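so im writing up the methods section and need the Branched-chain-amino-acid aminotransferase record in one place, dumping it here so i stop losing it
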Amino acid sequence: MFRGKICSSEWIRSLRRDVFVTKLRHCSRNAIGVQTASDASINGDREEHELCNWDELKFSLTPTDYMYVMKCSSGESEFSQGHLTRYGNVELSPSSGVLNYGQGLLEGLKAYRGDDNRIRLFRPEQNALRMQMGAERMCMPSPTAEQFVGSIKQTALANKRWVPPPGKGSLYIRPLLLGTGPILGVAPSPEYTFLAYASPVGNYFIGSMHFSVQDKVYRAIPGGTGGIKSITNYSPIYKAVTQAKAKGFTDVIFLDAATGKNIEEATACNIFVAKGNVISTPPIAGTILPGITRKSIIEVASWLGYQIEERAIPLEELMNADEAFCTGTAIAIKPVGSVTYQGQRVEYKTGEGTLSEKLFRTLTGIQTGRIEDTMGWIVEID
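--- predicted struct ---
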């Protein structure tokens, strides 16, 4: 389990020493390909635009200054008041529930810098509600919506100089809910820790997405955890995704486990199919993650006059669609360039004038303040 301070005193001393001897102006890359933030920047004596080469920002980890930590101790059902601490490694018991039995949840949301230099969060209360839903499924206590949103605000503000300039990216915030108490038998953890850290990120994918359809490996099954953001949902599909990428595909589309005939979602994003004025997407029925970007696009598209259908979508319908696109926090909205199944490749419209491009401009306009938020989705923090 976590023992007192998140960062060791030796690490803090080393960090302070490095602050005075290191004067790096840009992000550097270590031997394993993780971007490392300049220690000199922690004192706040650098302007935002000097921290990184924002033009080369990718969707990879750049450690920032602070993370937020909150605990629920043994015998308690509510989380105590949390606090900010320097970003650093955490210490866990070898017998913690998250390490032994995968009792953990993750979330993901972004802070955006607008042309007016204000920093905005997009629907953070929806992430709070989704974490609560997942926690109930995983027999875990969860922070209240107020605690969750408050922690995200504090994390974003503490790392606000890492929010990229307008049009250069966003600050990705990753909340975690972990069973950190020691447990040997198969049972819920006796203690829990919530933490949130942040990293500036660029595009998850460049250009349109090219999918292969996976009909032998299933991402989720009825009655399982596909409808929540359990940390156990992702690594079981790494092999299928790795094999697809080795063949030149961007990602994989998974079919439903019950019939093997209907599309469900990709590795970490929801999928939409467009035909004429009708936009269709698989329904939320326990095997598909209730994406917040998905939910928002349904509302935006309805507002723009499109007919929305949430229903089972046979693979054949995807292969005959006019257009297809994916949604998610990491990717926002990405057009699907092609889908390949059993040697048959189908290509779709992408680029200027497409539905996905129109929806992308509308959604990102709301997120960054270029379009008035009439939905009450934006939380300004700066």
